[in-house]
Amino acid sequence: MAAFWQQRGRRQEHGGLGGLIDGLGSVFDVLLANARLVLGVSGAAVLAIATLAVKRLIDRATSPRDEGDPKAEQKTLEETWQDLALIKTTPKSPKKQKREDLSEPLLSPARPLVPDPRACSASVGAPRVKSSPLRCLTLQEKLLSHHSSRLAVPEIQVSLVPQLARSISTQLQNFLRSKCPELPFGRLFLSGALLDGLEVLAADHIHLMLPVVLDTGLWSLIPGEDTVVRNPQYWMIKRVDLGYFPRGCSPWDRFMVGRYLSSNVLNETLHKMLVASINWPAIGGLLGCVIHPVVASRELKLEVKHDQVELSITLLPVVEMEDKVLLAVPPEGLVENLWLESFYRAEVSKVKELDAGDSGARQRCLRILNGVCRSHPTLHKLGGSPVTHVILHLSDSGSDWAEESLADRFQQVLEELVAYLEKGVLPSYFNPKINLFSGLLEEEIDEMGFVLYRAMSEPELLLE
């Protein structure tokens, strides 16, 4: 009975599995027949190997084995592992290329296919450092970097230039007192952006102010717009009460032309003293430098050469009356009696006062713009007073001048400058009747406007 059930079981086993195997065999045959068309050559090869392994597994599972052979089961397992290993080690078919991969650049055919063993060992031994992507600086960051790294004046100039200028001022003051004791000159003093913390790039020039002390009972101011020049930027200094105080009562009467104190005559007298009367080689030897008066200039100018610095000093006679600061800088032409009104002291004082009130960045913006104008051959006449007055006008409009808004204010100043240049008029902050562009030629205004108009879209160009 046992033999009967065993034989029956074997027939049932062979009968059921035989039909299944035959069905799977026909399916595999169909797949193999069409695999080359569907999967290609490499895909068909992979499928054939996998099919062969699976068929061998099924054949071993269904084929009768000798019950007395103890190595039969072990042999079957070893062959199964080999077949499974055959399936795992079968090379995978190449992945189908995606559409987005088509845009990737192809490898150069000259690139070596075999990797460099040194590179491989280095990559295995050392951890791979992830490179951080390059970050583009904003205009705000560029302005701050430009201000801190490119506009600074060398320390040797900051310390040595004022020292030299004061020493020369002392020598000049002593000469004037001994040569012209009858002229009540005031005490010489230095003026300029370096002393006010607004100098940029280099401290190679400074102003030496020579006060001309007038008796207010003998002299009065006449606005330039009330004279033949019709220019509110200039003033005339008129001698008064000649009937009661005749000519010669004032020590300055010797510099009069008509009834007016002539800035031109005063400058010519001082120019002769600077060129011919002062022993500059001796003074230069005492101070450890070489001093040359500029003979051909209309200005009262000294050129100073030191081992460490070169300096230009401009002597400016100045009259302070009725809250006005007037400089002996007459315009070119036949008019000799005009004195130029200066707003420099008021400009600097106002800018610092506004910055102190709201912790603003006006002085920083002004230094950047002055540096741009000074280094650009087309814009050099915009530096200083014109740019300062634009900043002061903007301050009245309620703009935010905090340091975080420096880039916005910088661009706004450029836009305002372009607008003023288009009109050809920049009104003075302290006297709207004065046009600060009056001394510019039309061609200069056009060139400046063109440069700044281009910079409105790319302000970084001005920082290069």
UniProtKB/TrEMBL annotation:
Name of the gene encoding the protein in the UniProt record: MIEF2
Protein species of origin: Lepidothrix coronata (blue-crowned manakin)
The UniProt record lists the keyword DNA damage: no
Keyword Nucleus: no
Pfam families linked: Mab-21_C, MID51-like_C
Membrane topology note: Single-pass membrane protein
Name of the protein described by the UniProt record: Mitochondrial dynamics protein MID49
Disordered: annotated segments: 85-108
One example of a Gene Ontology biological process annotation: positive regulation of mitochondrial fission
Gene Ontology CC terms: mitochondrial outer membrane
Domain Mitochondrial dynamics protein MID51-like C-terminal: 158-347
UniProtKB keywords: Membrane, Mitochondrion, Mitochondrion outer membrane, Transmembrane, Transmembrane helix
Residue ranges constituting the Mab-21-like HhH/H2TH-like domain according to the UniProt record: 362-448
Subcellular location: Mitochondrion outer membrane
Signal peptide: none
